[in-house]
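hey can u check if this looks right to u? its 387 residues, i copy pasted from the old doc so theres a chance i mangled smth
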Amino acid sequence: MKNYFSLLLIFILTIFISETFAIPAFSRKYSLSCQTCHSPFPRLKDYGDSFARNGFVLADKESPRYFQETGDAELSLIRDVPIAFRLEGYATYKHKSNEDRFEIGSPKILKVLSGGSLAKDFSYYFYFYLDEEGEIAGVEDAYFMLNNFLGTGVDLYLGQFQVSDPLFKNELRLTLENYQVYKKKIGLSHINLSYDRGIMLNYELPTKTDLYFEVLNGTGLIPASDGEFDNDKFTNFVGRISQKLDEPFRVGGLIYLGKEKLGRNNLSFINKVNMYGGDLTLSLGDKFELNYQYIHRIDSQPDTGFSKIKTNSSMLELIFTPKGDESKWYAVGLINYINSEFPGSDYKSFALNLGYLLRRNIRLVGEFLFDAVSKTTKFSFGFVSAF
């Protein structure tokens, strides 16, 4: 009982010594509340998603004096480069077998973000982890975006991004627990649906059908060697279709076709990776949102001595905001389920996250996590802020 009291006391002290009352970069630029795009932050509403897809430009609101006047019509120079920060910190109590552990994990995340329009239909976005779990993690999202490329209606992304971004954006989740279905790698494989370098194309049909096509290195974010970012000759491909059947219902499908070279020299071998999946979103008014993802993965040879390994992964998320985007508190339930033929790759967990907004950009967070494979229980309390 003393452990729980100490945890609560430290959590309260941590919260109230944090001076994070500024507003994020896009809110500063357009003089709008975070609530315009988020509910709660960082989760995007439809308006916020449209804003991001439009190159971080509001179609119905001009940003005053956005570009610097230089007298050169061919020069697009941002007057003020938009910069924002995200800071998170937690205290955690963990129980596994007969061992209890309490720790302070603050800051868990400190990152700097920037994004905006460089010219008409040409934008950029990136963020840099100044600190992630005690280490400098570096750049993750970093890409250029061209809207309506060459007048075709196609949006083009070039750089590094999460392969799963057209599905459910892992970076915008409300839980500490990840969408493990996107992060899972099998054996020695470098391939998953998390970060990679490549090109992504998006085209929206008049029928509210979204089409995506990605061309990827398939190696994740490994450092370049001798100026080469891809460590093999293979290029991987992703196809994605998403359809809004009715206002509260959306369904989608995914296919991933890839190859990779694993091992070294005489011990090297080729692993073919095919993934197929489906997803759906069901919204009940503005109070409930249900998200589901299923991925079936086949690895031809993810390690020496293993062939044709099948992995089934799924994620189920339920979000409750009792007063819609006016809610001061919210609740999220998240189930991760991964069943693989490769030894040690199973993962089964349940997370329950409760949050309360002190401000639109500052929220208190409490999360319960149960890992059914390792029989581990974890309680985390802390804060998330953006400024």
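Residues 2-16 form the longest helix (15 residues).
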